[in-house]
Each structure stands twice: as C-alpha cells, then as structure tokens.
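In this supplementary section we document a worked example of the pipeline. Step one takes a protein sequence of length 128 as its only input; no multiple sequence alignment statistics are reported here. Step two produces a three-dimensional model, which step three serialises into structure tokens for compact storage. The input and output of this example are shown verbatim.
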Amino acid sequence: MGLIHTRVILANPRRSDLAPLTVTALVDTGAITLCIPEHVAVQLHLAELEQREVTTAEGRHVSVPYVGPVQVTFGNRSCFVGALVLGDGVLLGSIPLEDMDLVINSRRQEVTVNPESPNIPSAVVKRI
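The serialised model returned by step three reads:
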C-alpha cells in the first residue's frame, strides 16, 4: 500500500472569527494522534495545553507542544481532538479517523466515510 493523502478542514472551535484551514493530510494508521506543523497552530491560534514526549522514527525522544482543541472535518463528519505540533505537514492518525468513522480504501488509495453508515458516524461501545 502506498501513501494516502486526503483533504481535511482544521478549525479552532474556540475562535469562530478565524477562518478554517483546508489542508492535505498524510493518513497514517500507525500513528495515534493528529500532528500539525507550527504554522498551522499559529494560524488557528491554538493554545498550548502541555508538552508531550514523542519518539521519532529515528528513535529520538523529543518534547513537543500539545495544542487544542482542533476541530477536524472530512465530508459530513467532524471530531474534536488535540494535536502534536511537529513536522512540516499534517498527519491524520487513527484517533480522528476512528472518531469520524472513516475507512481507508487501499485499492483506490483514498479515505471515505464508512459505507455501512454513510449519513452519520457510528461507533462500537461496551454495554452500559
């Protein structure tokens, strides 16, 4: 499977006066969180909530800002997440993918809404 990119809209739900950003994100099911470059965090005026330690692909441990909240929108789906500030591009990890009930079509190299629930996101939960 090759690299899959998709367009998402990022917004600061605390600042409705700021225009949302439409960005191309690398989809990475091996990553957990949303990762954004510093210029996106600055444009959306995202507050730093804390520092988090991350391990890079090279095995280095670095401390990076964790900002939020960020509203992520794809098609008729959206979610609210925090984001790690690092790198040069947007990386969409498994938490926002699962929260919006998105699926990856590896044959077509694209992200789509779950065809089993096309109108609203679905989730699996344990009995209460």
